[in-house]
Amino acid sequence: MMLRMTNNENDTALHEAVRYNHPDVVKLLILEDPDFIYGANFSGGTPLYMAAERGFHDLVQIIIDNTPASPAHSGLMGRTVLHAAVICNNEDMMKKILEWKSDLTKEVDNDGWSPLHCAAYLGYTSIVRQLLEKCDQSVVYLRVKNEHNKTALHIAASCGHIDVVKLLVSQYPDCCEQVDDNGNNALHLIMIKRGIFHSSGLLNFPWMNFRGLMNEKNVEGKTPLHLLADYQMFNCRSFMEHKMVDKMVLDNENSTPMDIMLSAEDLYGEKGPILGRLETAKASIGPLGWQKVIKQDNGGRRRKKGEQVSLIKKAAKIHLIVATLIATVTFAAGFTVPSVYDDQKKGEDQGLTVLAPPPSDGSIDRRGWGPSSNLGFFFFVITDMVALLLSSSAVLAYFLMALNHNVELVRKLINMGYVFTYTALLVMLLAFLFGIISGFSL
């Protein structure tokens, strides 16, 4: 029959009618051949799955109500029509599918994800509630192997979906006792998600509020309080001060939560307040904590000093270029003095520069330094010499800096070099000014 013919993508006429959302055509095609089970196309989608995937609730209802035999419901990556409805977050579609085939709650895709796992991951609380009403208890304990064997509760906790966590815990309290492959329970995973525990109200749940869960260790020996210190969660005062929480518990490295907090870097600017709250909660350093803090503190100081020296020397390279340029300019200016030449001179004065106009009484020595000598030229020579001396001193300071690694000495040298360079620049500008004045006076 023509209705069963497929195209190059293995799509039938019903696939195409579903794809483009034509309810009347979908119903007509099904009624024309009600006994035919439409399989999946090359993309893995059956007509029913495609309708759910696209959120076409009316098409899902038409296919289910008008197919005498159970329609195929498989889809991409081994998912079912229920997976697709969960991902679409369509409660009406969910209700219809669960009334039709509630056993789909147990089906998992190629990665081991059930519809409940998907809803927990996406944080769809109402969808989770619908699934819990129709599924067996065993579905709550299904694990996703490629996600370290996490249950739906673990996934919701890892994603920070507190409302889903509360719903699962309230209906299946014993699921709190489950741990993943890393030994993390729900509290461990919530602690990893910074900032959500304070307003979660989880400690008000009796099953989340008992000694074993609060102090349970994962494979690294860390309790939820260790992770609180690891991730520097400031807004967890109620948990820190809870009477059931062991503040002196040791992990596999013999560290208490206080040890971890003391040796950690201040990532969010909250290290001080967290330490204060731990102290208020009577937390203290462990038996080996003093040694670890001292060693890590010394190592951190050495790294910090090394970084400081590196940054100072990097800045000094730019300063050195400026100082070298000033030294070069002032050195050259000492030979190219501002003056004019008198070609009329004879004998030993021939070729000498005229540095000042002759005095009115005619008394002048051969170098132009008489009673009315050019003061502009005099100050030019002095300022040029001073600028050359200062810039050379700055170059020397930067050279000595390259040979030292002591942060205090390096800091003093760069400050000294900066002062020399800055002053040499100002004096060089004065020399330029006096040179201009001297040249115009001639």
Automatic annotation (TrEMBL):
Transmembrane stretches in the record are 320-341, 377-401, 413-437
Note whether Flavoprotein occurs among the keywords.
Answer: no
Which UniProt key words apply to this protein?
Answer: ANK repeat, Membrane, Repeat, Transmembrane, Transmembrane helix
* UniProt domain PGG: residue ranges: 312-355, 376-437
**InterPro entries according to UniProt:** Ankyrin_rpt, Ankyrin_rpt-contain_sf, PGG_dom
**Protein known as:** PGG domain-containing protein
Q: Which organism is it from?
A: Vitis rotundifolia
Q: Which Gene3D superfamilies match?
A: Ankyrin repeat-containing domain
Main subcellular location: membrane
Q: Does the keyword Repeat apply?
A: yes
Its lineage reads: Eukaryota, Viridiplantae, Streptophyta, Embryophyta, Tracheophyta
The record's subcellular locations are: Membrane
Q: Which PANTHER family match?
A: PGG DOMAIN-CONTAINING PROTEIN, PROTEIN PHOSPHATASE 1 REGULATORY SUBUNIT
